[in-house]
Amino acid sequence: MNSLNTLTVKDLHASYGAIQVLHGVNVEVSQGGATAVLGANGAGKTTLLRAICGQINRRGTIELNGEAIDRLDTADIARRGVAHVPQGRGTFTTLTAEENLRLGAYTRRKSGKVQQDFELVYSYFPRLYERRNQQAGTLSGGEQQMLAIGRALMLEPKLLVLDEPSFGLAPRIVQEIFGIMRKINREQRVSVLVVEQNANLALDFADRACVLETGVVVTTGSPEEMRQNEDVRRAYLGY
Amino acid sequence: MPAPKQLPRWTEQRLIVVAFVLVACVLPFVVSNYRVFQLNMVIITSMALIGLNLLTGYNGQISLGHGAFYAMGAYCTAILIDQFGVPYPIAIVASGVLCMGLGWLFGLPALRLEGLYLALATFALGVCLPQILKYKGIEHWTGGVQGITLIKPDAPFGLPLSADQWLYFFSFGVLLILLWVAHNLITSHTGGAIMAIRDNPLAAAAMGIDLARYKTTTFGISAMYTGIAGGLSALVVQFVAPDSFGVLVSAGFLVGIVVGGLASLSGAFFGALFLQFIPNVADQISKAAPWAIYGVVMIGFVYLMPEGIAGFIRRARASGAHARTKT
Amino acid sequence: MEQLLHQIAAGLATGGVYASLALALVMIYQATHHVNFAQGELAMCSTYLAWWLIGAGVPYWLAFLITVVVSFFFGVGIERVLIRRVEKAPVLSVVIVFIGMQFILNSLAGWVFGYTIQQFPSPFPEEPPFGNPFINSHELGIVAVTFFVVGLLWAFFRFTPAGLALRGAAANSDSAGLCGIRVGSMLALGWGLAAAIGAVAGMLIAPVVFLDPNMMAGILIYAFAAALLGGIDSPVGAVIGGFMLGVLENLAGAYLIGTELKLTVALVTIVTVLVVKPSGLLGKVVVTRV
């Protein structure tokens, strides 16, 4: 239970140029666990993920399995095993679905294991296999989300970071995707950090949650604690 | 200790302008004829640079082919004087009007082009123009490869000025008028709209600014300035030929506004001085040197002094004033 | 009829050169959304290098190879030193840097090699293949080399991991970074390739137009026109556009407007494409989201 966290973030400050967005954020993802970050628009959730992945100016402690990654650039962080599924999917729209997946595995050397992972991804997302030679930009929103997650899996990640995976998708697809995310978390033992506006969904999925408000974490706890917290309930769960 | 007295900004500005005009008026009498010619070219180039700056610096439309308008202005003046005996002041005005029309016309398709596409199209224009000017089909007008020769007009009313000096004052007068117009344009509502289009075209359109009208008009005015400059150059150089108006003229103008400062009227002088006098110095080193210097300077300015000389001076004065007010 | 075929054949040859350069332009555009205004001067400098090597006694194809490799690294160097600094700068600054580069390269060539026009040898025999009256060996050679280079590039992009990574970096540089791809290196690679292609194009066209520091200006305009015609983000389009334009130029020159105004064909093409269909024949229409 108290083994090394996959991800430890302490006192993280992040800014876009002169504008500071995060003011000392603390987040943890345990080994094989799943942490959800809740918050309204503009709270800084996407900024948090970008900061972790080295895409913006940041200051503070970020540790992946005990190793400091706060001084590394994005490509290096990815190579260390952090797979980020960005807001809006970030699909390589002009490439085929399979090429998208292949790019996820770009930094990996052992081609045998890569081939296995292709099969794994296709087993999670059979629809992608059907459309593997189709241009990624022509896939539906849900399929592109699956593709983005698949691409992240191809990295053989230790930590999967997702930014609003439910965004713009129909409820049925969202359930499907979260179901697969659960499987990935359990079967592949990949730790997950997910940012979600859909608080119910996130609390069903995660084993730990925190609420971000204007760049600071205001509450953290287990999903049950969150559901019992009146402020959280009223603000994010609607009752 | 009382704080040092500081003149209000606008008085300072006016003093500078007056001093500048006085110096400019005295110069032709104390320097050689050749220098007067050079200073005249500085004046003319400044006009062209103001023209380009209006379009590129203030309005954000990149033109790499303004030499074409310069050429068209020059040829228009030359043809009117040489073939039709038109008096030169009218020929110059005609050049301006013609280029305004041509600029406006080019501005129409330019509406569809952004940034580097426009740069590309204007670049092609600049490269192609000498070829068009050499075309045998219009040779009887343009004089083909040989071009047209003109004679410098003498000072009117028997004034005791050499032809060079007279042309200098004539150009200077034209420049002052054009400067006044440009200054008023920039500080007016129209100027604000023009710059808004440069900074954020979508927002400008959303605010109700008619992008098409302003952009084409700016193109026209910009071309007019450069066309007038071209016309005057025909008189001063006494000669127009296709090879004098190659792509390097356009490129030179770009160098001029980068060095002088984008979106700056005073910058035109610094740019023109640079363009006129650096080649003289550099030529002594080697034929290749002037353009190598231009290249290095341009790149250097982008990295180090993105606001050009004018911007640098402005900042220096602002920080100086700031330091003075902080007792 | 014979004249027509000859014009078409010669047009295909120059078209091959335009196609290669257009391809280089498109590659850089795809990766960086910048138009490489200095592409012509880069090619010209490479050609001078080859000329110098050959003059020093190096056999043609060896000089060719060395030039291509050196040009590749020169392209990489330029990306690292100059272009990387202005990646995020406004369009005007980028254009200025490119034009400045053009000046410097042009002056460099003039200073080192002088401005007299030089002859550049062709590796292909004097006699036309099979004595035919339509196309000479050099022209055929240009077309063959163009197809070879284009084919090589295609294979690189389609089948190699680096090629895929470069395509990815061009399609979405943020996501590429998230996959662990060093986008900066990819850009440098792209520039290196573009410089190498330019070198090939320069060496192919030099025997025809003769070597001097200003030889590439007109050709570059055609390459721009070809790239735009085909679609500024379509490599296939660039190649097709190049060949089309080469033939068009020759036919227009021979039958319509005379050889003096040939450059205007490029100008008219550029303006027409930009006004009528900016995405070109094969390019994709980009919708700007507010």
In terms of topology, how is this protein built?
The complex is a heterotrimer of chains A (239), B (327) and C (290).
Chain A: E1 7-16, E2 19-29, E3 34-38, H1 45-52, E4 57-64, E5 67-68, H2 74-79, E6 82-85, H3 97-104, H4 111-124, H5 126-130, H6 141-153, E7 159-163, H7 171-187, E8 191-195, H8 199-205, E9 208-213, E10 216-221, H9 223-228, H10 230-237
Parallel strand pairs in A: 3-8, 3-9, 6-7, 7-8
Antiparallel strand pairs in A: 1-2, 1-4, 4-5, 9-10
Helix pairs in contact in A: 3-6
Chain B: H1 9-30, H2 33-58, H3 67-84, H4 88-110, H5 115-134, H6 139-142, E1 148-149, H7 163-187, H8 189-199, H9 201-206, H10 211-237, E2 239-240, H11 247-260, H12 267-285, H13 289-304, H14 308-325
Antiparallel strand pairs in B: 1-2
Helix pairs in contact in B: 1-7, 2-7, 2-10, 2-11, 2-12, 3-4, 3-10, 4-10, 5-11, 7-8, 7-10, 8-10, 11-12, 11-13, 11-14, 12-13
Chain C: H1 2-32, H2 39-55, H3 60-83, H4 91-113, H5 137-159, H6 161-171, H7 173-178, H8 183-209, H9 216-230, H10 235-256, H11 262-276
Helix pairs in contact in C: 1-5, 1-8, 1-9, 1-10, 2-3, 2-4, 2-8, 2-9, 3-8, 5-6, 5-8, 6-8, 9-10, 9-11, 10-11
If you had to describe this structure to a student in words, what would you say it looks like?
The complex is a heterotrimer of chains A (239), B (327) and C (290). Chain A is of the alpha/beta class and 239 residues long. Chain A folds into 2 domains: 1-81 and 159-170 and 188-239, P-loop containing nucleotide triphosphate hydrolases (Rossmann fold), CATH 3.40.50; 89-156, no CATH class. Chain A contains 10 helices and 10 strands. In chain A, the strands form 2 sheets. A 6-stranded mixed sheet of chain A has the order 6-7-8-3-9-10, sandwiched between helices. In chain A, strands 2-1-4-5 form a 4-stranded antiparallel sheet, with helices on one face. In chain A, helix 3 (97-104) packs parallel to helix 6. Chain A is globular, with a radius of gyration of 17 Å. Chain B has a domain at 38-246 and 263-269. Chain B has 14 helices and 2 strands; from the N terminus they run H-H-H-H-H-H-E-H-H-H-H-E-H-H-H-H. In chain B, helix 3 packs antiparallel against helix 4 (88-110), helix 5 (115-134) crosses helix 11 (247-260) and helix 7 (163-187) runs antiparallel to helix 10. The radius of gyration of chain B is 20 Å and the shape is globular. Chain B starts with 8 loop residues before the first helix and ends with a helix. Chain C is mainly alpha-helical. Chain C has one domain (2-276): ABC transporter involved in vitamin B12 uptake, BtuC (Orthogonal Bundle). Chains in contact: A-C, B-C. The A-C interface holds A 53, 55, 73-76, 78-79, 83-84, 86, 90-95, 99, 102-104, 106-107, 151, 155 and C 161, 164-165, 167-168, 171-172, 174-183.
